Amino acid sequence: MAVISVRIPDELKAKMRELDINWSEEIRKFIEERVRRAEKQKKLDEIHRLLSGGTPADEGAARKYVRDDRDSN
After folding, report:
1. Tens-digit pLDDT profile for residues 15-66
2. How many Å apart are CA 25 and CA 65, to the nearest integer?
3. Which domain holds residue 64?
4. Which residues lie in Basic and acidic residues bias regions (predicted)?
5. Is 46 within 8 Å of 53 (Cβ atoms)?
6. Within a domain: residue 40?
7. At a CB cut-off of 8 Å and minimum separation 6, what does 49 contact?
8. Could you give the CA distance from residue 51 to residue 54 in angstroms, rounded to a whole number?
9. Dist CA 14 CA 25 (whole Å)
10. How far apart, in whole angstroms, are the C-alpha atoms of residue 2 and residue 31?
């Protein structure tokens, strides 16, 4: 497992010591969730990019394709 160091103000560190919280676990969970959200956003951005580059279908095209498919069976 990798190690990450973070500098925080002494006052904040003193307040953290007063609380019964597993800070390494809290920070690990936060980072994992933040990475998941960033990955999702990256995928959404890629999908939007791909969709915006396409040519819009003519009005009624979907209806025609469905009708053609139904009629062929």
Report:
1. 999 999 999 999 999 999 999 999 999 999 999 999 898 888 889 999 999 9
2. 53
3. 10-72
4. 60-73
5. no
6. yes
7. none
8. 6
9. 18
10. 13
Within a domain: 1: no
Sign for the pseudo-dihedral over CA of 55, 58, 59, 60: negative
Within a domain: 30: yes
Q: What is the DSSP letter of 53?
A: T
pTM of the model: 0.67
Question: What is the rounded distance in angstroms from the CA atom of residue 24 to the CA atom of residue 1?
Answer: 13
In this structure, is residue 5 part of a structural domain?
no
Phi and psi angles of residue 37, each rounded to the nearest 5 degrees, phi first: -65, -40
User: In angstroms, rounded to a whole number, what is the distance separating the alpha carbons of residues 25 and 59?
Assistant: 53
Place of tokens 């396409």: 54
